[in-house]
């Protein structure tokens, strides 16, 4: 019978340092990971396919985006991950794709910040209070222990306060930020996890040396920062092919000539391999734009499988 791993099992099998090491190895020697494909099930509903494979395993993440799902007892976004054996094609495990996604996304951002932010950063601001926000704070806290001042900002003050308190209760020392411009100006890392279609963070708030981590936008129509922020930054992405097709924070300023293709320093793998230098000084503004990469899912899923499924005798 095909093992089915729950969200709790996925999280338990992915301690932050172990996951970060697996992701770093995957970015350094990436598997084959075609750009994801999207299929319209209806004018409002979408099905996404995200495959990847290496010399050991084949992985496929299936994601549904169905806004009406909650009315039928489901979730707007749902995901499952199927891991198969590379040599036989046989399925090895089915995993909770939501847990896999939030955990690898947060770990990839923290991994990028270790490579792109100023050394030993002390201050982090997370913008947004959705499902990814607490995972970003947990990952950053675990993987960048120099961070001592954590702030959270959301449009709704009550929601922000509740999320901050729940994180405090589990030992993550975060406080609500009363002013977004002030919080941006005082933070060395600014992480955006919103679904905004108009810029939330403005370039004239960003001080020299800041690292911008843009996670929320995943379509050409979504924006988290304005053109001024993008124009000031040295830009690194998780996947060049995907980012140039899907990331509104890059696609829109590229189309208007605010930046050029040369403004993109490279992808995270190139930075980790030492092929390009993103941060040249403590005054550079760096920007990491992630749209989600199937190589991250495969790396995380392989760790989950190794930790959760007993090896054959």
Short description:
This protein is an alpha/beta fold and 313 residues long. Helices cover 35% and strands 23% of the residues. It is globular and about 55 Å long.
Keywords:
35% helix; single chain; Rossmann fold; alpha/beta; 11 helices; ornithine cyclodeaminase, domain 1
Task: Describe it.
This protein has helices spanning 7-12, 16-28, 97-116, 133-143, 157-169, 180-185, 227-232, 240-246, 248-255, 268-272, 294-308; strands spanning 4-5, 37-40, 46-53, 57-65, 77-85, 91-96, 123-127, 149-153, 174-176, 189-192, 211-214, 233-237, 264-267, 285-289. It is an alpha/beta fold. The chain folds into two domains: 4-100 and 295-308, ornithine cyclodeaminase, domain 1, CATH 3.30.1780.10; 115-293, NAD(P)-binding Rossmann-like Domain (Rossmann fold, 3-Layer(aba) Sandwich), CATH 3.40.50.720. The strands form two sheets. It has an eight-stranded parallel beta sheet with strand order 9-8-7-10-11-14-12-13. A six-stranded mixed beta sheet has the order 1-6-5-4-3-2. A hairpin with a 3-residue loop joins strand 3 (46-53) and strand 4 (57-65). Helix 2 crosses helix 3. It starts with a strand and ends in a 5-residue tail after the last helix. The model has no long low-confidence stretch (mean pLDDT 94).
């Amino acid at each position: 019978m095909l093992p089915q791993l729950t969200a709790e099992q996925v999280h338990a099998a992915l301690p932050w340092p172990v996951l970060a090491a697996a992701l770093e190895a995957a970015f350094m020697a990436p598997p084959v990971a075609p750009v994801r494909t999207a299929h319209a099930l209806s004018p409002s509903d979408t099905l996404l396919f995200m495959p990847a494979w290496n010399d050991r395993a084949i992985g496929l993440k299936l994601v549904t985006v169905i806004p009406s799902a909650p009315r039928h007892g489901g979730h707007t976004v749902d995901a499952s991950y199927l891991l198969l054996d590379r040599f036989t094609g046989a399925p090895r495990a089915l995993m909770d794709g939501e847990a896999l996604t939030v955990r690898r996304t947060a770990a990839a951002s923290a991994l990028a910040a270790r490579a792109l932010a100023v050394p030993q950063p002390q201050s982090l601001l997370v913008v947004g209070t959705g499902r990814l926000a607490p995972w970003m704070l947990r990952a950053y806290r675990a993987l960048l222990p120099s961070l001592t001042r954590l702030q959270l900002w959301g449009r709704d003050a009550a929601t922000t306060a509740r999320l901050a308190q729940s994180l405090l209760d589990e030992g993550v020392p975060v406080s609500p930020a009363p002013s977004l411009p002030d919080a941006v100006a005082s933070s060395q890392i600014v992480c955006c996890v919103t679904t905004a279609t108009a810029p939330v963070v403005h370039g004239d708030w960003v001080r020299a040396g800041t690292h911008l981590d843009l996670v929320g936008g995943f379509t050409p129509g979504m924006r988290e920062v304005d053109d001024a922020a993008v124009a000031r930054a040295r830009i690194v992405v998780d996947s060049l092919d995907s980012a140039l097709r899907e990331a509104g924070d890059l696609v829109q300023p590229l189309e208007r000539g605010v930046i050029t293709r040369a403004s993109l320093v490279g992808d995270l793998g190139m930075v980790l391999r030492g092929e390009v230098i993103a941060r040249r000084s403590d005054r550079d503004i760096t920007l990491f734009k992630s749209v989600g990469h199937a190589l991250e899912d495969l790396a995380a899923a392989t760790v989950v499988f190794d930790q959760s499924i007993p090896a054959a005798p």
